[in-house]
Amino acid sequence: MSDVLQEYPSSGGESPVPPPSRSALDAEAVKQAYRRWANVYDLGFGGISRFGRLKAVNTINALPGRDVLEVGVGTGLALPHYNRSKAITGIDLSTDMLAKARERVKRDNLSNVTALLEMDAEDTTFEDNSFDAAVAMFVASVVPHPRKLLCELKRVVRPGGHILFINHFLAPGGIRGAVEHAMARASHSLGWHPDFAMESLLPQADIARATIQPVRPFGLFTLVTLENLPD
Ligand SMILES: C[S@@+](CC[C@H](N)C(=O)[O-])C[C@H]1O[C@@H](n2cnc3c(N)ncnc32)[C@H](O)[C@@H]1O
Question: Which InterPro entries match (predicted)?
Fold first, then answer.
């Protein structure tokens, strides 16, 4: 069965889960896309995404707890910005992106980055309740099954801990929405989904209780902060 047609378990119970996207990226497509991106990623996307990344990291720095999981850590652009009191575990599917993150950790002597592992964020090997917080920066619209990602983050973060997403979400309508729908045809080469709706990731109950903050530039990205409460 294709990824697009498959049904996914609801993590909130009350709302049916929409299909993830018309052209979900499977693991191999992600690896291929980010093999191409790895050398140019920081220059190509690092600038425009900087405000969102810093806002997410600053939010985590202000939260209690030490152990932080960053999924889809990429080239490690966020890593230098965590307080040194935070212990960061980074995971990513892409060997090439992780190689860049490892170079950065060495270059900047980031001793609080305790592990960088090649691992699928939708299906990790961590024990339940391993982390105080987990963050996915510009990742939710890349994974094939966003609700599975949410379930996994809820599992590995302790109750009362926090789950953060910074992402671009589909505009509800207007010119921007139309452009994003049109751009979605290029999802595989872009390596992300311009037409990614927040409801593909979060059930209504989570949307209702999350802190949702638009982020510069132009509110193009959104920071979602969710306390990890039992469903
Ligand atoms: C747009 S980049 C974001 C990188 C980084 N978070 C940042 O802020 O720049 C998306 C990253 O997610 C990774 N990724 C995609 N699907 C993944 C999955 N299922 N598990 C782990 N990493 C994944 C990609 O390899 C890529 O490095």
Answer: Methyltransf_11, Methyltransf_Superfamily, SAM-dependent_MTases_sf
